[in-house]
Design goal:
single chain; 247 residues; alpha/beta; sialyltransferase cstii, chain A; 9-stranded mixed β-sheet; 8 helices; 9 strands; 39% helix; 15% strand
Length: 247
Amino acid sequence: MQYERWAPQYERIRAEFGFPFAAEEAAVARLTALLPPEARRDALGRLKARLHGRDAIVVGLAPHAGPPPVWRLPTGGRPPALVAADGATATCLTAGLVPDVVATDLDGPIPAEVAANRRGSLVVVHAHGDNLAAVEAWVPEFSGALAGSWAGPPRDGILDEGGFTDGDRAAFLAEAAGASRILLWGFDFATVEEADALARARKQAKLAWARRLLGWLAAEGATPLLTWRKDGGLEPYAAGTNGASTR
């Protein structure tokens, strides 16, 4: 997604949630400094090498969804690629599935993401205004393929393909990498488990944006975006489709 197209969405999100741009810049600057040189080199090309021309299954964390039933997809051609959204990484590993790509802002079960990284996953670490401490603590723990991302304007060595929560950002990454289709598995924009009323309202607002952004990507992007239902059916994504809490 060209930044010029994404920027108005980013500005609306920052205004609604009160994200200071200076904090976003500080986080991405630190992330850039912590990434090894190879992680800052041709990040989009390395992403394309894993996803281009393949079905990308973006895995979310909807309650009771479990891992994607990849055996249900038609055989023949290139096998599908798994793109895990943060906490869904642990779900995949438990089922013996190693994601091709992990999209994370480091607020899920990070040890599972480190384990996936050591088993071959490309981990795309996202920097934003309130995860600087997690960036400092965890980026040095990743020893495998790594890349960085943020939602702001282009920066050398950092992906800026759009997206807000880990789940919708994973779909934006798949779109940018030229996936043949994006299949959303385990997405639920309605279920919020936070007990605190303020935290619950904030999570609901984030999920509303994730749903809206996926609808925008379905309309504006070049890659078909489909919801993969638990009954095995595939249907074009629509903004009102229930789909997973991913940030």
